[in-house]
């Protein structure tokens, strides 16, 4: 049975960065990827906007992934594509993995694991749309794969449900390829995507955005023939009398992403309900010693630059953990007021004496606001924001070098007028 210091599961941007980072720390690394090629979803992202923070230039998703693939090929990382981790067991001193490959079955041992499994899209079934299931109902990611990888147009008259970033980007992409996007329908009272995508993908192409509206029924047998949309109230319940039938041959669903954490759950790792990702500390280590999580498997990020950054940190921490016996640690919790949708990481080692990055999202759109962090009753950090929106993730870095973490940490938001 082959043995490794670090095994990374997932060959997307987080997994690539984690494997490279662990290899640079002189760990023996295995990278497992279920697809034939490395790069994750970036392989089908031909639009630019990637790498602005990391490389200081606009790259397509493909170009961004290629830079990491070229770098990992220069390392000693063992790469297994078309490989599934079908089972993981926690054993003395590490983990035993059962791998299913195109050439058979294999068991390997690893001292530490990094879960970089990314996320998946919610489907039409998960938002409970009434009607049949004809051809022409796709997730935004599936539509992107059809157009950018297969070179096939999924339809000519399209309705998009949800204003997530992938859906907005596909509204523009389909328009450029000659399809007619009849409208984007969002059940919430404000868009779910980044502001720049609202303007660059919808406003610039005169694609209508209908807020507080949703699709309640699909029509058609073998092929989609139309959808029924209607207005919804504040509880997102359909408002009777507002129904409208829209003839179309394609419905594209962009209603959110869910971190892939089935493997984490089989190991008994605590999962946070708010993020659907593992509960992690400042080094991205989960509640099971030796198992780390990064990228969109931990929480859904806005920018791939942050995904890669978390992978690098997880890789460095996992290689360091592999070189020493597992020891138990004391932790303090990181909590937030009800104004926060979530905060990551959600706990810190009590011995933390370095700078820690926190990522958070506001639960609702806010105007001028001050975010404060308390250690017990003592305020240790504050930052003022001109405004916060739920789709836009925020990052703050706080130095704990001179602080003793004897109490839990608590984030709050306060209106500027209250200061």
**Helicity level:** 10-25%
The rounded distance between the terminal residues' Cα atoms is 62 Å
CATH topology of the largest domain: FAD/NAD(P)-binding domain
Average pLDDT works out at 94
Strand content: 25-35%
Shape: globular
Domain FAD/NAD(P)-binding: 4-298
Keywords: Oxidoreductase
Protein name: FAD-dependent oxidoreductase
GO molecular function, one term: oxidoreductase activity
How does this structure look, described?
18% of the residues lie in helices and 34% in strands. By secondary structure, the protein is α/β, with parallel strands linked by helices. It folds into three domains: 1-121 and 257-324, FAD/NAD(P)-binding domain (3-Layer(bba) Sandwich), CATH 3.50.50; 123-255, FAD/NAD(P)-binding domain (3-Layer(bba) Sandwich); 331-419, Immunoglobulin-like (Sandwich), CATH 2.60.40. Helix 5 links the parallel strand 11 (180-186) and strand 12 (209-211). The longest helix is centred in the C-terminal third of the chain and has 19 residues, at 304-322. The chain starts with a strand and ends with a strand. GO terms for molecular function: oxidoreductase activity. Keywords: Oxidoreductase. This is FAD-dependent oxidoreductase. Residues 4-298 form the FAD/NAD(P)-binding domain.
């Amino acid at each position: 049975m082959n043995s490794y210091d670090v095994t990374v599961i997932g060959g997307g941007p987080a997994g690539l960065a984690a494997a490279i980072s662990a290899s640079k720390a002189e760990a023996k690394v295995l990278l497992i990827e279920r697809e034939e090629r490395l790069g994750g979803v970036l392989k089908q992202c031909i639009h630019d906007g990637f790498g602005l923070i990391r490389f200081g230039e606009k790259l397509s998703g493909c170009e961004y992934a290629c830079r990491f693939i070229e770098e990992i090929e220069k390392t000693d990382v063992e790469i297994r594509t078309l490989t599934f981790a079908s089972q993981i067991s926690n054993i003395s001193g590490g983990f035993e993995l059962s791998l299913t490959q195109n050439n058979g079955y294999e068991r390997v041992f690893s001292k530490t694991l990094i879960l970089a499994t990314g996320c998946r899209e919610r489907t039409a079934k998960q938002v409970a749309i009434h009607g049949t299931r004809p051809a022409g109902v796709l997730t935004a990611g599936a539509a992107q794969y059809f157009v950018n990888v297969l070179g096939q147009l999924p339809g000519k008259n399209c309705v998009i449900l949800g204003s997530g970033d992938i859906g907005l980007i596909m509204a523009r992409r389909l328009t450029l390829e000659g399809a007619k996007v009849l409208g984007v329908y969002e059940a919430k009272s404000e868009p779910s995507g980044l502001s720049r995508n609202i303007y660059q993908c919808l406003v610039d192409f005169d694609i209508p955005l209908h807020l507080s509206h949703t699709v309640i029924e699909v029509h058609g047998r073998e092929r989609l023939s139309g959808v029924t949309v209607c207005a919804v109230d504040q509880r997102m319940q359909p408002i009777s009398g507002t129904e409208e039938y829209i003839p179309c041959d394609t419905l594209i669903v962009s209603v959110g992403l869910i971190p892939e954490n089935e493997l984490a759950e089989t190991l008994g790792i605590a999962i946070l309900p708010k993020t659907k990702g593992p509960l992690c500390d400042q080094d991205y280590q989960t509640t099971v010693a030796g198992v780390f999580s990064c990228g969109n498997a931990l929480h859904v990020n806005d920018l791939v630059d942050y995904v890669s950054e978390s992978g690098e940190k997880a890789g460095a921490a996992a290689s360091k953990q592999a070189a020493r016996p597992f020891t138990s640690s004391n932790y303090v919790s990181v909590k937030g007021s009800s104004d926060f949708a979530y905060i990551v990481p959600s706990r810190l080692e009590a011995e933390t004496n370095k700078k820690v990055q926190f990522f958070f999202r506001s639960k609702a759109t806010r105007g001028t606001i001050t975010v404060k962090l308390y250690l017990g009753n003592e305020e240790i950090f504050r930052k003022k924001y001109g405004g916060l929106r739920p789709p836009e993730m925020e990052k703050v870095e706080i130095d704990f070098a001179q602080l003793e973490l004897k109490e839990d940490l608590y984030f709050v938001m306060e209106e500027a007028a209250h200061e």
